[in-house]
Amino acid sequence: MSSTFDANAALAAADARQLAGDLAGAIRLYSRLIEGASGFWPAYANRGLALQVAGDATAARGDFRRALAIEPGAAPPLRNLVDSLQGETAASAALAARALVAIAPAAWESWLSLGGVELSAHRYRAAAHALRRATALAPDVVDSLTGLGIADDAQPRRWLERALAIGATPASLLAFARHLRERNEPHEAGRAVRRLLALAPGGIEALVEAVAIIDGARATDALYRWARRARLLAPDSVVVLNNLGMAALALGALAEAERRFADAIALQPDSAEAHFNRATPLFLLGRDAEAWSEYEWRWRVGRFEKAPGTAPRWSGEPLGERRLLVHEEQGLGDALQFARYLPMMKERHRNLVFFGHSRLANLFRASFPDIEIASQPDIPSHDVAAPLLNLPRLLDQIGRPPPAPPYLKGPAAHRIEAQDRLRVGLVWGGNPGHPRDHERSIPLAMLAPWLEIPGIAWVGLMVAPGNGDIERCGFEPKIADLAPALRDPDNAAACIAGLDLLVSVDTAYCHLAGALGLPVWTLLTWIPDWRWRLSGSTTEWYPSMRLFRQPARGAWAPVIAEVGNALRRLRRP
Fold first, then answer.
1. In which element (H, E) is residue 326 found?
2. How far apart are alpha carbons 90 and 528 in whole angstroms?
3. Which of 145, 215, 292, 571 is deepest in the core (most CB within 10 A)?
């Protein structure tokens, strides 16, 4: 009895040292206790905890295993063993977690450990099952709720908001910020990140996430400072350098952005994100040859769609009689812009087929009658494939003026009644799913001064969800809404052909009007898409296009004033 009492007293003394932060002193006391009572498993278990906190994971796991050898049914050392194995030996961690559940199935900690292991292995369904069991046993454990917010596809927000209501932790705020970013709620994501930074101001993960979440025109000087602080903490991190490049790019520091991406590539030459991101400042700086080479890395970035079918990628070698499939990629605007290279490719390789979105099929068939046009979902037979945006490089056209519009042939113009007024089409927003739509779209209400300019018949060309803006703003008498006629690009081409001018933010409509050779004024953000360069009111892509640029980040008011003055000069007497 006395020996047990002495062992417990010695354990309590060692535990007190550990709680006070004296890890070295605690480890010495645990070791003395083990020398005097080698069969006392709590001494091994608690010394293992101290060793783990001190950073000696190997020795810690040894102690946890000794504790289990003495008392196989002891849940605490097994739980600690699971935690110590996380991220190092996934198979061992999984086995230990399942053993823990078998030993202590009524303990929420057992299911939380198993859920954590399954999350680390990206087995989300299994993780959600384990974490629901943990939450059923203990409803208010933040770690379980946070894990469910990551693992449960059906209702992630419910679990994360519950976790935050109980008590915000760095892990719960980080998970919530990522969820909001995925839901395209950047304002809310930014708020979550700022809470995260306030809670863990020195945390490298928080700083990295801040730069990843707070995007584009919403970037501030503070974002750039966070990115620089992260670099001081982790100067050799590819992720940190890549994010610092993105922060610099958002603030218009193109040369610095390009250097940071290059630094990341020097550390990790196969970093697809860094290569792809570097293409943007290179394009904007006019270094086209380098930019196109870096842009090729887009195919290794997960968010880009892969080529249809399994045929090998064509790299420009002689084709002979082999059949080449050129396929659409990214959005409709890209397809409309780069379709100009199809006739040139047809001249070189007669056995050519273009494969793209069905919405463009009729327009492209009318415009390129000598080229076979196929559309989704049926992939035509072919021997090799090439992405549409690779054609300038494959045709050795980089650095040369692109083929000039008009290269598309639209249907007959849609008749728009305007009496003796100018018929001006208006597009004030794009697809809300676009990652930069919050930058390029303009609230319709801001354009009200244009509607007071005499001599103009305004025509709205917005499709859902923005086509309801005219009614919401009370502009029905001033803007004729053609949204019901815009079923596909053919109808849109007919409507644009019936206008005297199209005024639009940066959307596929601009490319359609430009490809048809029709007058279009395009409104650009301060740091525009790479194809528009950084300055100038004209573009080599479309001679009929005039560019209006923000003078500063988010500054639409000067653009609206400049366009208004241009409209007054343009209007008919």
1. strand 324-327
2. 44
3. 145
Write down the pTM of the prediction.
0.69
CA dihedral 415, 420, 425, 428 (to 10 degrees): -140
The residue type at 254: L
pLDDT in tens, 463-495: 766 567 888 888 988 998 888 777 778 888 989
**Residue range(s) defining the domain that contains residue 549:** 422-570
Burial class (CB in 10 A: 0-12, 13-18, 19+), 332: buried
Which helix H or strand E contains 147, and what residues bound it?
A: helix 142-151
Q: Which residues of the chain have a pLDDT value below 50?
A: 1-5, 87-89, 215-217, 573
**Residue 297 shares a structural domain with residue 352:** no
Whichever domain contains 273, its CATH number is: 1.25.40.10
Rg (CA), the chain: 31
Q: Quick one: 2 exposed, middle or buried, by C-beta within 10 A (0-12, 13-18, 19+)?
A: exposed
Sheet containing 422-427: give its strands across.
479-481, 456-460, 422-427, 501-505, 520-524, 545-549
CB atoms within 10 A of CB 341: 21
Is 121 contained in some domain? no
Residue linked to tokens 């923005």: 466
How far apart CA 557 and CA 549 sit, in angstroms, is: 11
Which tokens sit at 570?
A: 């343009």
Q: Kind of pairing, strands 479-481 and 501-505?
A: unpaired
Q: Edge-to-edge strand order for the sheet containing 352-356?
A: 372-375, 352-356, 324-327, 384-387
Q: Which two tokens stand for residue 268?
A: 């990790």
Does residue 234 contact residue 203 with C-beta atoms inside 8 Å? no
Q: What share of the chain is helix, strand, coil (3-state, %, to 5)?
A: 60, 10, 35
Q: Each residue of 86-145: pLDDT tens digit? A: 544 455 556 566 766 766 677 787 788 888 888 887 888 889 999 999 999 989 988 889
Q: How far apart are CA 287 and CA 123, in angstroms?
A: 44
